[in-house]
Write a structure and sequence with these properties.
Elements: H1 5-19, E1 42-47, H2 58-72, E2 75-80, H3 88-91, E3 96-100, H4 110-121, E4 125-129, H5 140-146, E5 150-163, E6 177-187, E7 196-201, E8 213-220, E9 223-228, H6 234-237, H7 240-253
Parallel strand pairs: 1-2, 1-3, 3-4, 4-9
Antiparallel strand pairs: 5-6, 5-7, 7-8, 8-9
Length: 258
């Protein structure tokens, strides 16, 4: 081209450059619906007090629950060994009361017992794990709340767990059954007629017969209650299937899932 064409080309290039904004150096923000309102994390108050046998898995249980809350952002955990902390005032700032591996006749006053019942009846959540059923035999209302009382643990071995509540948040990620090494409970009476059974023992896998529910859910007043008999060993608490079981239960008890 001749020299006369150069200024014209320069002008065209400048105009095109001004009309085309430079590309951002970072990825653009995706266009979509604006975010919905932020949902506050559920507040779990985890009691691990023991007035009987004490499980070695208690520190692991507390650690796993805290980690699950931090990883999901769905709940916070406040753990205590002090029975005196379970009061109406404390429960007023709690969404779920979780008896994790508790044992024995915990020294609750009548006022504390009433506060727990009032809390769940008014819409609060209750959860129990493993030896929560080996707790407070002398308080019949607690037996109704947790669902049953421990009788014995005839099998500590690898066994097959049958998933009955396949659509329930606490079991929907577990498949039809799974094998787990744990300490399996039998209860003083069968709670099946009073609760929704979610897990049960495959009796053929332990060489017996009968009906042995292992986890269940129930409404309690305006609130919800969940119990799982699993959780004796540290390895159970670190098992992803058990963690999914607990996470779904927390969502259900906290009324974040149905």
């Amino acid at each position: 081209m001749g020299r006369a064409a150069c200024p014209a080309l320069l002008i065209v290039a400048l105009v095109m450059g001004c009309g085309s904004p430079s590309q951002p150096t970072s990825n653009p923000v995706p266009v979509g619906n604006p975010p919905g309102p932020t949902v506050a994390p559920l507040r779990l108050l985890v009691l691990t007090a023991t007035y009987g046998f004490r499980h070695d898995s208690i520190p692991t249980a507390r650690q796993v629950l805290t980690q699950l809350g931090a990883q999901t952002g769905e709940f916070t955990v406040s753990a205590t060994e002090d029975v005196a902390e379970i009061t109406a005032v404390r429960l007023a700032s709690t969404d779920i009361l979780f008896f994790a591996l508790t044992t024995g006749e915990l020294p609750f006053s009548d006022a504390q017992k009433q506060a727990i019942l009032d809390f769940v009846n008014a819409g609060g959540g209750f959860m129990g794990a493993h030896s929560a059923t080996d707790t407070l035999y002398d308080w019949a209302d607690y037996g109704r709340l947790v669902g049953a009382y421990f009788k014995e643990h005839p099998w500590t071995q690898d066994a097959t767990v049958t998933v009955e509540g396949g659509s329930h948040p606490a079991t929907r990620d577990l498949g039809a059954s799974f094998r787990l090494f744990d300490e399996y409970y039998a209860f003083r009476d069968n709670p099946r007629s009073r609760v929704q059974v979610l897990l049960s023992l495959n009796t053929a896998s332990v060489g017996t017969t009968g009906d042995y529910p292992l986890a269940w859910a129930q409404s309690f007043g305006q609130g919800r209650s969940f119990y799982t008999a699993l959780g004796h060993f540290q390895s159970t608490w670190t098992d992803p299937r058990f963690q999914a079981h607990l996470l779904g239960a927390i969502r259900w008890v906290g009324k974040r899932a149905s």
